[in-house]
Amino acid sequence: MDLAERISTLRRVNGLSARQLAALVDVAPTTVTRIESGAVSPSFDLAQEILAVLGEPIGFTGVADVAAIAAARSAFDTSLTVPVTLAVDAWRQRWARIGLLDEGGQPVPGKEADLLFRAGRAARLTRRAGAVDFKAGPSAYDIGDALRAAGVECALTGDAGANLYRSSAGEAWPVVYVEDVTRAAEAASLVRKEPGSFGMRVTLIPFDGVSELARVDIGGLNVVARDQVVIDAYGGIDRMIEQADILMGRRVA
């Protein structure tokens, strides 16, 4: 797939019009349509920005953009101590240009789900820095119990997190934020998954200073804040997007 086709396909997958994508990267709508038609080739910097907002950075080593998470989390919860870096401010400006944030940097009423969706797409769970996959078996709840007993800080997210806020579906992919992946894996007796293998898995993600902030206790288990669960579900796989929609009131459980 060449760059023009890749951008066009990803734009449609993200549910964006050419005008909306143009606003996100601050170019004229005709620039986007000409790039997608192959009439012009974007500079490397513009191509990188376009693909970043579409959740597919250039290169196979591109990782999830924690700045997008920070921008969304701080917009929903101004009490969070999230540093406003240039990267965070860039996401705020992009979302303001397409009407997701108001002049005060707050989510526009009725656009909350769209904002969290954009953050999730820019920070896919499969691309989180330092994430490690383990063989399937224990549930996120089993892992949470084991880590709590071992004194390892953790916070559930994904399917398990969504179900703790509002039961809606079974757990397909246990995902847990942890303070230390190695200690957590030992405490929960997890077995490392073979690199490059597919199928069911358990994923541990190291704390990144943003995603695990404001975690709460629900039924004796630590879970990340509701808005973070939604971000992660929108950036996940299987039925996670459906669960995010349910939490945001877009679907009925």
SSE map:
Blueprint: H1 3-13, H2 18-25, H3 29-37, H4 44-53, H5 66-76, H6 86-97, H7 112-122, E1 132-135, H8 140-150, E2 154-157, H9 158-165, E3 174-178, H10 181-187, E4 201-206, E5 216-218, E6 221-223, H11 226-234, H12 240-247
Parallel strand pairs: 3-4
Antiparallel strand pairs: 1-4, 2-3, 5-6
Helix pairs in contact: 2-3, 2-6, 5-6, 5-7, 7-11, 9-11, 9-12, 11-12
Number of strands: 6
Q: Which strand order do you get reading across the main beta sheet? A: 1-4-3-2
**Number of separate helices:** 12
As an assembly, this protein is single chain
Structural class: alpha+beta
User: CA-to-CA gap between the ends?
Assistant: 37 Å
Shape: globular
Structure characterization notes:
It contains 12 helices and 6 strands. The chain is of the alpha+beta class and 253 residues long. The strands form 2 sheets. Strands 1-4-3-2 form a 4-stranded mixed β-sheet. A two-stranded antiparallel ribbon has the order 5-6. α2 runs antiparallel to α6 (86-97) and α7 (112-122) packs across α11 (226-234). The chain starts with a helix and ends in a 6-residue tail after the last helix.
What keywords describe this structure?
10% strand; 253 residues; two-stranded antiparallel sheet; alpha+beta; globular; 4-stranded mixed sheet; 12 helices
Can you summarize this structure?
The chain contains 12 helices and 6 strands. By secondary structure, it is α+β, with helices and mostly antiparallel strands.
